[in-house]
Amino acid sequence: MQPIDPSMVPIPNQENSTMTSRRQFFRTAGIAGGAIAASAVSRVAMSALPEPVLQTKPDTMPPLVPNSGRPYNPVVTLNGWTLPWRMNAGVKEFHLVAEPVVREMAPGMKAHLWGYNGQSPGPTIEVVEGDRVRIFVTNKLPEHTSIHWHGQRLPNGMDGVGGLNQPTIQPGKTFVYEFVARRPGTFMYHPHADEMTQMAMGMMGFWITHPKAKHPLIDEVDRDFVFLLNAYDIDPGSYTPKIMTMLDFNLWSWNSRIFPGIDSLNVRLNDKVRIRIGNLTMTNHPIHLHGHEFLVTGTDGGPTPKSTRWYEVTTDVAVGQMRQIEFLADEPGDWAFHCHKSHHTMNAMGHDVPTMIGVDHRKVVKQVTGLIPDYMVMGERGMADMAEMEMPLPDNTIPMMTGEGPFGSVEMGGMFSMLKVRRDQKPGDYKDPGWYQHPAGTVAFEYTGALTEPARFKAEGGQSMPRAQKNAKEIEVQVRKPSAKSGHSGH
Ligand SMILES: [Cu+2]
After folding, report:
1. Among 296, 292, 256, which residue's Cα sits nearest to residue 420?
2. How far is the CA of 123 from the centre of ligand 1 (A)?
3. CA of 247 to the centre of ligand 1 (A)
């Protein structure tokens, strides 16, 4: 992605058409109706646009410690970043640029997406409860857009539904959104114009409003991570998502990254950790953490009342929802952290393949090889072979089950990462500490002693419930997926 040429960004004082659309916007959005004083409007019109900040790398950037405005403990966006702002007469000004981007989803695989400021998802926006926020949105897409500030309390004309709350932002135009961040919490932003296309193309981002003072329901934490659940349908070997797909996506991602491209969440032993997860896919995701129990301390509606919290290891994040979980990271190790739908921890090509477990292919293979010399049977012993087989892949895709761990292939993909808990991870250090060094005698190992007969044979006669002596006909059920076409559209 090339950095934006600032001269391409329309500046209100120089471009009449932008002024026109802006005047029209304020009229239509009903700001004159009392949401913002007239003086504020003219101040916006007078000010130049803040220079847009771009990010070209998909790395997890360190937290952006606020250097102006009220202090807070910043979040870390997984494989993402926080958008810097400028203070203008007490108003926090941000500049989002909606534009086509190239996102590396994992090393070896790039996708042509739409996003904001060089990446998909867009940068995280962080403000403090009570802040007046002004967001300039420049549209560099080939079609109109808008931004909806999912979950916020704001004047109706700032809610961003194209056609309902405002005219859409035409290509080349810049609109201004301005409101006070009224309640603390976790929010998302995404277009509300040609949503099906624009969300399938990766347009979305996170918004955090930190509490202005100590809040009875919002604890202070040592590490605060955020990421969005998103999904794409990109055929192996191609670059652009299929936007008409309703449910059968083949790339299940966190912040438009797939395992092994998703960074681990690296924390210090006994850190209090918060993770905020937003779902902008078309299905729910039961997010599961190994080795620890967590509390759901917040939703997109705000912090949860203490009486509603109980310990869990999996929490479902439904479509359009946000869940905020908190736990004490008091078990050292590399703990898996993933969506529990097994098809969502798999990359492209894990779909529409008939089940072949137990099928003897030898005769078939012999015949097919005569016609197709490279023919290969998939999944005769289960699908784990897929992680290791050396089948030539098309360009720009990665194996459906992959990722090297310290003991071999992890056989995962998609929505999978790790929580790495280390005694010597320094406060504020988010670097990957490498693989966990297990203390001697704490790793599962192969039993090499003598094998005994299974105990159930001996127990057969001694059941408390007598077995029915029916002369039942034995039935063996053979399960095979009906056809590749009928698929599994329900997951
Ligand atoms: Cu999932």
Report:
1. 292
2. 23
3. 12
